[in-house]
Design goal:
- InterPro entries: Dicer_platform.
- This is Dicer platform domain-containing protein.
- With about 260 residues, this protein is of the alpha+beta class.
- The protein has 2 domains: about 170 residues, no CATH class; about 35 residues, no CATH class.
- About 15% of the residues lie in helices and about 25% in strands.
- The protein contains 4 helices and 12 strands; from the N terminus they run E-E-E-E-E-E-E-E-H-E-E-H-H-H-E-E.
- The strands form 3 sheets. Strands 3, 4, 5, 6, 7, 8, 9 and 10 form an 8-stranded antiparallel β-sheet that branches.
- Helix 1 packs across helix 2.
- The longest helix has 18 residues.
- The chain starts with 17 loop residues before the first strand and ends with a strand.
Length: about 260
């Protein structure tokens, strides 16, 4: 095999699985002295140093002080079609909806360039997102008005943020404790509502505090098991389920599922 050049001088196979050291991370269990390459699959997990943006460090709002509101807006550039949308569902552009998400910070993100779409607002560069709905363009920009938070509001916003990432998105792994004041990145994700000025046509964004209170107050109550009388008297009302999130009560109550009613 060595004469046929199927093995190299170190009697290791030669082929597409021979990868240069510069293309792989330094892994001690595959290191062989005086060799300029490694043998192994090209499908390897690459490890990178975790870096945090300094502008988002120690940025959690303080009670009794004003904070900055940043909008996280997504614009549908190209909707999925064909095989990617077998049920031919209607794809809604998030830009056309009344609500969106944002985050609160006690300091500004450094200005990069002027926002052409929203004059007189600071904005970080937009970036693409490829979601199941299609290609989106994400924009993050500063709202010109500030928000004054008190102690009660701050606690509710923290509870909403925790519920979103733990119960809904389920991104919290075991052994982690929610201590936002000590987190390396501690901005608070909040729901925002678009408000258009009828006279000037300008769009402004306000914290949907009523929605925050409603969600936090329902954390320990949903999903609720209906009584037998309620089930017998139930009448389906399509208007109540339009553009809504449903939580089936007959499934795992400790880890409930969330379903969006698209149509």
């Amino acid at each position: 095999m060595h004469k046929r050049k199927e093995l190299n001088d170190y009697l290791l196979p030669v082929g597409k699985d021979t990868i240069m050291l510069t293309a792989l991370d330094e892994d001690p269990d595959e290191f062989i002295p005086n060799m300029s390459y490694k043998v192994g699959s090209a499908r390897r997990r690459q490890l990178y140093d975790k870096r945090m943006a300094k502008a988002l460090h120690n940025a959690i709002p303080h009670a009794g002080e004003e904070c900055y509101i940043y909008v996280m807006e997504m614009d549908l550039i190209k909707a999925v079609s064909g095989a990617a949308n077998p049920k031919n569902r209607r794809i809604i552009n998030p830009l056309d909806t009344e609500f969106c998400f944002g985050f609160l910070s006690n300091k500004k993100i450094p200005k990069v360039r002027p926002n052409l779409g929203y004059p007189k607002r600071q904005k970080v560069p937009s970036f693409p997102l490829f979601l199941r709905q299609g290609r989106m363009q994400a924009n993050i920009f500063l709202v010109k008005s500030r928000l004054l938070v008190d102690t009660q509001m701050l606690e509710l916003l923290k509870a909403f943020h925790h519920y979103l990432f733990d119960n809904v998105l389920r991104l919290v792994k075991g052994g982690l404790v929610f201590v936002p004041d000590k987190a390396p990145v501690n901005v608070l994700i909040v729901p925002l509502r678009r408000e258009r000025n009828s006279e000037t046509g300008e769009v402004d964004f306000k914290l949907d505090y009523a929605y925050v209170r409603n969600v936090v107050s329902s954390i320990d109550e949903l999903p609720r098991i209906p009584t037998e009388a309620e089930r017998l008297a139930f009448k389906f009302d399509a208007a109540k389920f339009q553009d809504a999130i449903v939580m089936p009560w007959y499934r795992d109550r400790d880890h409930p599922s969330f379903y969006y009613v698209a149509e």
